[in-house]
Amino acid sequence: MGKQLRIDSVLRPEVLIIGAGGAGLRCAAEICERRPGTRIIAVTKVYSPQKSHTSTAQGGMAAVDPKDPVDRVIYHMFDTWKGSDCSADQNIIKKVCETGWEQVVWLERHGMHFSRTEAGRIAKRPFGGHMLNFGEVKAFRACYEADRTGKGIMDTVWAESLRHGVVFLGQSVATELLFSHGRCVGAIVFVEPSGKFIAILAQATVMATGGKTRMYQVSTNCRQNTGDGLALILQAGLPVMDLEAVQFHPTGIVGPGILASEALRGEGGVLLNKDGERFMERYAPTAKDLAPRDLVSRCIMTEIREGRGCIHPDHNMPHVWLDLRHLPKYVHRTKIQEVTSFFRKFVGVDPETELCPVVPTAHYQMGGAPTNEFGEVQKSPEEIVPGLFACGEFAAASLHGHNRLGTNSLLELITMGKVVGERVVSYLADAEAPGDVPEEAGQHVFSQFSNCLERKGHQRYARIRDRLRVLMMEKVGVFRSEKPLTEAIDELRELKRMASRMELSSKSLVMNQELLQFWELDHLLDISMVIAQSALARKESRGAHYREDYPERKPEFDFHTLAYMTEFGKVDFAKRPIDMSIYKARGKNYKKFGMIERKY
Question: Would you name the residues annotated as active-site residues?
Answer without folding.
Answer: 293
